[in-house]
Amino acid sequence: MSQTDGELLKDAGVNQVAANHLSWAAMAEARIALLAALGDEFDADDLRDLGTPPHPNCVGAAFRLASRSGMIRHVRYRKAKAPAAHARIIGVWKGV
Questions:
Q1: Distances 42 to 8, 10, 15, 89 between C-alpha atoms, Å
Q2: For the chain, domain boundaries
Q3: For 2, phi and psi rounded to 5 degrees?
Q4: What is the pLDDT of residues 20-55, one digit of tens each?
Q5: Angle at CA 95, nearest 5°, toward 14 and 21?
Q6: Are strands 72-79 and 42-43 parallel, antiparallel or unpaired?
């Protein structure tokens, strides 16, 4: 199946965010790999102690890259626990 123009633009944006913020992206990738290896479900709230990401799209980019690489898979959605997230809906992931 071929990607739509929108999917191609999304992937380009994800790659650009990661490339522009290599240090934070590397920390997020390492944390996601650790969480995936533990075998439990996890989400963006589990990256909060890495500090505020340098760009609002960094967290989503980290999860998309990990998913695209086959490290994790999406399992469901839930409301974020952190008060600052205002109960927004976030993805829940699990290692593959």
A1: 27, 23, 22, 14
A2: 5-95
A3: -90, 155
A4: 778 999 999 999 999 999 999 999 999 998 999 998
A5: 25
A6: unpaired
The encoded tokens of residue 89 equal 């809906």
Give the E-state strand segments of the chain in sequence order: 42-43, 72-79, 89-95
Other Cβ atoms closer than 10 A to 86: 8
Going by C-alpha positions, the residue among 22, 37, 19, 33 that lies closest to residue 63 is 33
Sign of the alpha-carbon torsion through 19, 32, 36, 74:
negative
**96/29 Cα distance (integer angstroms):** 15
Model confidence, pTM: 0.85
Choose which CATH entry (1.10.10, 2.120.10, 1.10.15, 1.10.760) describes domain 5-95: 1.10.10
Query: Distances from the Cα of 47 to the Cαs of 34, 42, 59, in angstroms?
Result: 11, 9, 8
